[in-house]
């Protein structure tokens, strides 16, 4: 049993490094169905469950301190790529599709929780809030809400399982629909001429090679902003059940990130690489406190995930018919929420490589609002 704090943290970071190395180096289809970040969570949680990690005040304190420092820094780096001025290229239908997708997911969580509430473990509303952050943004939003709401690690594990199983099925379903796009568009009465203009307006940018000065600069800048955000957030008042010091800290960091997105800092390469390093470390630390002894409750959560997606699908189909929206717009709007940066650009590229920037911008929009959409879901569920 490990009791040494440094060994504990070092082992988690090494575990994350090995999993990422194998995932990026392997051509196996395994990682298409079990993303590295989920495998990391399962591995770290398993180490806790079988007793490799002990329990001590020093280890708990180190875990909390590192997570609280890295979380705002990660959010800053994630949002540096989110230039809101690019949203003008998306057009009314794309924005409408994305907005309705967000509201349908929020409604899906509320309705599902209301129906299955009696079968859930305590504090499930917190885990659903975190999952809603992921399904309207991405993994970074999910981790942010876990920190804000202090979601119990065991319940957070159920949310991650839903985020893997239900998400994987949904992604495969959306890719399966692509060959039927013309038939769907005919059924919806949708026209796709605006997509041709989008391909002209949006161009992918290559920010250059990531080097030592870029990585060190981004690390120093993000940690400094994190420190200042934490200080300011700590002196601001708490409001209600979800607005606390961590909420203020995350909000301040997000605002700074959006400001930096319209400055020359946004052109510095390596922001997503550094942000992902922090994300994996945070996930490993969260998972190392989890215990899978209650995993038998997972089936009701997976069923709940499919029920949420069914509500989302029904609303999106109704939207397509009423406003004559094409399948590409619906699919990207949906996956920019539920899949985020990991899959929305891939789906866009599956339609046409020139449309990849559409998926990128839509996913960045999700990373901007995901945390707050998840907190809205948590607030609603806490009152049910």
UniProtKB/TrEMBL annotation:
Keyword annotations from UniProtKB, A to Z: Membrane, Transmembrane, Transmembrane helix
Regions crossing the membrane: 6-22, 34-53, 65-84, 96-116, 155-178, 215-233, 239-262, 298-320, 327-348, 354-381
Source species, domain of life: Bacteria
Pfam families given in the database record: DUF819 (PF05684)
Keyword Membrane among record annotations: yes
PANTHER family, sorted: DUF819 DOMAIN-CONTAINING PROTEIN, PROTEIN, PUTATIVE (DUF819)-RELATED
Protein name: Membrane protein
Organism of derivation: Compostibacillus humi
């Amino acid at each position: 049993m490990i009791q040494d704090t440094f060994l504990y943290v070092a082992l988690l970071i090494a575990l994350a490094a090995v999993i990422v190395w194998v995932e990026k180096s392997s051509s196996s289809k395994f990682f298409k169905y079990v993303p590295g970040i989920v495998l990391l969570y399962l591995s770290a949680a398993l180490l806790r469950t079988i007793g490799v990690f002990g329990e001590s005040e020093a280890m708990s304190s180190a875990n909390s301190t590192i997570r609280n420092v890295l979380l705002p820094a990660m959010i800053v780096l994630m949002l540096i790529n989110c230039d809101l001025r690019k949203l003008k290229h998306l057009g009314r239908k794309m924005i409408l599709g994305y907005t309705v997708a967000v509201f349908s997911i929020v409604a899906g969580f509320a309705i599902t929780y209301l129906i299955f509430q009696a079968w859930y473990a305590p504090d499930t509303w917190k885990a659903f809030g975190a999952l809603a952050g992921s399904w309207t943004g991405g993994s970074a939003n999910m981790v942010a809400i876990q920190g804000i709401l202090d979601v119990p690690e065991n319940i957070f594990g159920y949310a991650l399982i839903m985020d893997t199983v239900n998400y994987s099925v949904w992604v495969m379903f959306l890719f399966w629909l692509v060959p039927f796009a013309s038939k769907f568009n005919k059924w919806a009465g949708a026209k796709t001429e605006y997509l041709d203009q989008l391909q002209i307006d949006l161009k992918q940018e290559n920010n250059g090679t990531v080097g030592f000065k870029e990585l060190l600069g981004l690390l120093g800048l993000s940690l400094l902003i994190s420190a200042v955000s934490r200080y300011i957030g700590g002196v601001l008042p708490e409001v209600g059940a979800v607005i606390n010091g961590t909420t203020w800290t995350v909000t301040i960091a997000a605002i700074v990130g959006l400001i930096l997105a319209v400055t020359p800092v946004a052109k510095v390469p390596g922001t997503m690489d550094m942000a992902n390093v922090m994300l994996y470390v945070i996930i490993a630390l969260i998972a190392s406190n989890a215990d899978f002894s209650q995993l038998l409750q997972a089936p009701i959560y997976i069923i709940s995930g499919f029920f949420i997606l069914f509500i989302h699908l029904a609303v999106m189909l109704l939207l397509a018919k009423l406003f004559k929206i094409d399948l590409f717009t619906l699919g990207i709007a949906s996956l920019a929420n539920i899949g985020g940066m990991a899959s929305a650009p891939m789906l866009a590229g599956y339609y046409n490589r020139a449309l990849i920037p559409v998926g990128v911008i839509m996913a960045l929009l999700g990373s901007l609002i995901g945390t707050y959409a998840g907190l809205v879901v948590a607030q609603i569920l806490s009152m049910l």
